[in-house]
Design goal:
With 78 residues, the chain is mainly alpha-helical. The chain has a domain of 53 residues: 434 Repressor (Amino-terminal Domain) (Orthogonal Bundle), CATH 1.10.260.40. 50% of the residues lie in helices and 0% in strands. Helix 2 packs across helix 3. The longest helix has 12 residues.
């Protein structure tokens, strides 16, 4: 039996939800298109934008950045 161990790091990023929303509005594409490009559901994207998601993985954050073509400036220390 294999077990996957995942390292989790908690960081607080002020205004991340609003920065994602502003980037999306500037981009001009729909949430559905961007969420698909980021590899998440439209509902998940909206939850992030509304600040209802209190955590997300680095993979999701990087997917959002890639979909939007932006660097949100979030850095994780190893």
């Amino acid at each position: 039996m294999m077990m996957e161990v995942v390292k989790q790091v908690k960081i607080i990023v002020p205004d991340l939800a609003s920065r994602i929303k502003q980037s999306r509005e500037k981009d001009g594409r729909s949430v559905q298109v961007l969420a698909t490009a980021a590899g998440i559901s439209t509902a998940y994207w909206y939850e992030i934008e509304k600040g209802k998601r209190h955590w997300m993985s680095e993979e999701v954050l990087r997917g959002i950045e890639n979909a939007l073509g932006v660097d949100l400036g979030v850095r994780f220390n190893d």
